[in-house]
């Protein structure tokens, strides 16, 4: 398996082509920057290897607990973490659900025990969901699309590197 360092180098090497392609496709500096930043983010810390105690996982620092269920539930190189097509969709959904649940819990505890206000988990959940929907509605969808494609490219580069690494190892062993 290629090391974390190899994956980092591949990620950095992809910065210029990603930006140039994005600029050619969208012709908008900000959108291109968003997609390139998303690609780097996926390559360094939002990628397939979050399914194992890896460089990507460690880079979350104090927030690495957010990925604990993901790491625990998925086997290394499972299709949900390393699959070319759906793994990025799955990771984004997982992350949104975790953020939704934690924000709900934090708001509930704050209202209840800090302010002593009467509230329920359900009403805090509704509030957080509405806030997320507001962000979604008020942001130009172009940025979400560019961001998602960037995340996908970063993760796909990782999976392709893993596959190429395995093939190279197989050829090496057969000599
Ligand atoms: Zn991997």
Describe the structure.
The protein is an all-alpha fold and 175 residues long. The protein contains 9 helices and no strands. It has helices at 4-13, 15-26, 29-44, 55-58, 68-73, 79-82, 87-114, 121-138, 141-173. It is globular. The model has no long low-confidence stretch (mean pLDDT 94). Bound molecules: zinc ion. Zinc ion binds next to helix 9.
For the secondary structure, the number of strands is 0
How is the biggest beta sheet arranged? none
3D shape:
globular
Cα distance, first to last residue? 19 Å
Bound molecules: zinc ion
Q: Which regions are unreliable across 5 or more consecutive residues at pLDDT < 50? A: none
* Count of discrete domains: 1
- Beta-strand content: under 5%
Q: What letter string, H or E per element, gives the SSE order?
A: HHHHHHHHH
Tally the helices: what do you get? Answer: 9
The radius of gyration is 19 Å
Helix percentage: over 70%
Structural class: mainly alpha
Mean of the pLDDT scores?
94
